[in-house]
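HOLO CASE FILE
Compound: cobalt (II) ion
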Amino acid sequence: MKKHQKLLQENKLWAESQIEKDPEYFRRLVKVQSPEFLWIGCSDSRVPANQITNTEPGEIFVHRNVANLVINNDVNLLSVLDFAVTILKVKHIIVCGHYGCGGIKAALTNHDHKAILNMWLRSIKDVYRIHRSELDNIKDPHEKENRLVELNVQEQVFNLAKTSIVQKAWKEEQRPHLHGWVYGLANGLLNPVYEIRPGTHIEPLYEFDDL
Ligand code: CO
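Model generated. Tokens follow.
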């Protein structure tokens, strides 16, 4: 059997076992989704949002990209964010990075990763520049990389707070609460490293005064 056929076969078995455990399972899910969480994570195959939080389909709205970046002109990310915040009315947004992230490792080199990836990884280099004084003082390369993973999550959470989508929801409905977490591939644990509560005053430059 080909590898992809195995996926289809496993899918059949999974659907059958779900119905066996709970005959209403799919009928319930098909009606509505009302997740309380938006998850912005890394595309890395080792960090599946539902599995590591022991949640079910319907509980987390998910967006993933390389190194869990929140880029202010990424239409894909912004569409997900707008839908999750404005329509689904999520209460929490979690940006989840992970130690050992290939995107972060790549951004720490001066290697040419070719046009598209160079463009994407540039944002991580910007995070390094913003936090250069702290990062340059860390001598151990592994520790430096881990700290950049954490600071990257912090900056992406801050990027969420800069959007009018989030600020409008803060003003009108005192949500969502923004969280920055880092997942440990080695121990399976989530480490909360940063948060911004609804209504927090951020750098005035980014605050809209006429929402
Ligand atoms: Co990664």
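CASE NOTES: The beta strands are 37-42, 60-65, 92-98, 177-183, 190-196. Residues 1-31 form one domain.
CLOSED: yes
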